[in-house]
Amino acid sequence: MQRLFDSPIHHLLRDLAKKYGPVMHLKFGEISTIVVTSPEMAKEIFKTHVAFKITSYNFSGIMFSPYGKYWEELRKICNMELLSPQRVQTFKSIREDEVFNLINLIYSQKGSIFNLSRSIFNLTYSIRSHAAFEKRNKDTENFIQLIAETSSLASGFSLADMYPSIKLLQKVEVGKQDGGGGREALVDVLLNIQKSGDFERQLTDTNIKAVILDIFAAGSEASATAMEWAISQTIKNPKIMKRAQDEVRSIFNDKGNVDESRLHELKYLRAIIEEILRDPQYWSEPEKFNPSRFLDAKIDFRGDDFEYIPFGCGRRICPGIAFCQPTVGLALAQW
After folding, report:
1. Tell me: the pLDDT tens digits for 18-28?
2. How far apart are CA 62 and CA 56, in angstroms?
3. C-alpha span between 13 and 26 (Å, rounded)
4. SS3 (DSSP) at 27
5. From 106, 157, 241, 326, which residue has the greatest number of CB atoms within 10 Å?
């Protein structure tokens, strides 16, 4: 345990992997942890021999429910109603508003010290809160704050232990009965399916909470970490920051403001996002922050290239990829 405090955790795991191999069982206090450090073994675990045994409302969410009709229907609902490119686009104004609020918060600090990590974390969860529940109330605000505070104290905590009670779903239902309008949030879709009886088995409130939990868990930490990493490394590398800024200005100068309409043209910014920790066996100069390595690389983060799987892979790949891309891209372009 002493070594955990002597060096960065990723350096420690790298050194241990060199000595003990690509699959290790470590004990952090009373917590057993399996560490996988090679693309080959990641493929075996995530794609060839899938064996997740993580409790998530009795495996009733999208990510950890057993394969079968129930899982297929849940995945279809989420992919069509929330995570499809078309559906994600309907939340464009939410992302732009939340990113605008974050940028204003940064400017308001006027160079003083503040917790940027928490602000970025709040950004990712606030966007998902809007998408999942549409309207914000005291319970959703408390939920976001609770997750943020817990996450700052310990990594790897169980979101299921922190999820709010059924009262939140009840408030959503009351809002619908009172004529609450706006875009249809995912929880509304699930409540409608629950009432219609179209699902193969009865969709319970617990099932709905499990799905909403997955929406918050799907890529939120990965998004926040990617933004923190990119901001930190571009600050440390002024030439890289200038190149990214020049690219953003060249694309958006004629519009006067940065929005999502042309994010796909920011090739260098995308390369910055993709420049994360790599295995020395597969990447040259892994400790060097070099976004250019991704400009012409025929590799993607969608789970087919096991040298690079920030969102997981296989049939259990994180369903929130489509949500993460525009959020991270827009925030960094504004930065």
Report:
1. 889 989 998 87
2. 9
3. 10
4. strand
5. 326
Task: Answer with the residue of higher pLDDT: 147 or 10.
Answer: 10
Q: One-letter amino acid identity for 182?
A: G
Other C-beta atoms lying within 10 Å of the C-beta of residue 286? 13
Tokens of 246: 């020049």
Residue 296 token pair: 């012409």
302 neighbors 312 (Cβ within 8 angstroms): no
pLDDT average, residue stretch 24-40: 82
Strand (E) positions, 97-171? Answer: none
Q: Are 220 and 128 spatial neighbours (Cβ–Cβ below 8 Å)?
A: yes
- Encode pLDDT of 138-148 as tens digits: 665 666 666 55
Minimal CA–CA distance to 322: which of 185, 222, 210?
222
pLDDT grade for 245, boundaries at 50, 70 and 90:
very high
Is 318 annotated as ligand-binding? yes
pTM exceeds 0.90, yes or no? no
Tokens, residue 224? 């926040």
